[in-house]
Design a protein that fits this description.
binds 6-O-phosphono-beta-D-glucopyranose, globular, six-stranded parallel sheet, alpha/beta, binds magnesium ion, about 220 residues, about 40% helix
């Protein structure tokens, strides 16, 4: 394979925001009168806002809400999530990410963001690192959520890269599946048990700069 591009997931890969998504959903669950345990938080990773809401409601055994009520709850969660994001700064960029981005760009590879989050582009701007990405595709410009490959295929198309020559970096089960569904290679970040299907799994992003990916792919 001839590597052309690296496509990065955002939450939990570039920046430590997965915890804020979880906290905001937990808050909402609390307001609705139930606890949303941390173990269940794993299921929210990579999943769109409305799909996440369904998971949270299911966990609290809440049924029978109208589409409008659901929209209001999702908006409420997002409002609280954005208060965390307002305070976000570059200290929350995950270890190794800046070094890795600069390294692969210096080596001539293209870089893209492929995030399900509607706040994806805004978060990169806030962190001042949008210039390290040739292309940004986030939840504002896609219709189908991961595990559908739309977000990654759109990023590859914008880069002019062949999906088979792209490496996706993902921390979520749904994201690894999306990469597979798009015919792309995938580096998982997190636990091997959860990220089955990734070509290689690293325990954390700090290990990225030392991976000999040319030998791997
Ligand atoms: C993904 C997160 O990146 O974005 C999910 O992993 C989140 O947890 C999804 O639900 C959508 O984010 P947002 O910001 O559009 O609600
Ligand atoms: Mg993620």
């Amino acid at each position: 394979m001839m590597i052309q591009a690296f496509i990065f997931d955002l939450d939990g890969v570039v920046v430590d925001t997965a915890k804020y998504h979880y906290l905001a959903w937990k808050e909402l669950a609390g307001e609705l009168g139930f606890d949303f345990p941390e173990a269940e938080g794993e299921r929210l990773k990579g999943v769109s806002r409305m799909d996440s809401l369904e998971i949270v409601l299911e966990s609290g055994r809440i049924t029978g809400l109208t589409a409008e009520e659901k929209k209001r709850l999702a908006d409420r969660k997002n409002k609280s999530y954005l208060t965390y994001i307002n305070r976000l700064d570059e200290r929350e960029i995950l270890p190794g990410i800046l070094k890795f981005l600069k390294k692969i760009r210096a080596e001539g590879y293209k870089t893209a963001l492929g995030s399900a989050s509607k706040s994806g582009g805004m978060i990169l701007q806030k962190l001042g690192i949008e210039d390290l990405f040739d292309v940004i595709v986030d939840g504002l410009s896609i219709v189908k959520a991961k595990p559908d490959p739309e977000v990654f295929l759109a990023a590859a198309a914008k880069l002019g890269a062949d999906p088979g020559n792209c490496i996706v970096i993902e921390d979520a089960q749904a994201g690894v599946l999306a990469a597979q569904n798009g015919g792309m290679h995938c580096i998982g970040i997190g636990s091997e048990e959860i990220l089955k299907g990734a070509d290689v799994v690293l325990e954390h992003t700090g290990l990225l700069p030392n991976v000999n990916y040319r030998a791997l792919f």
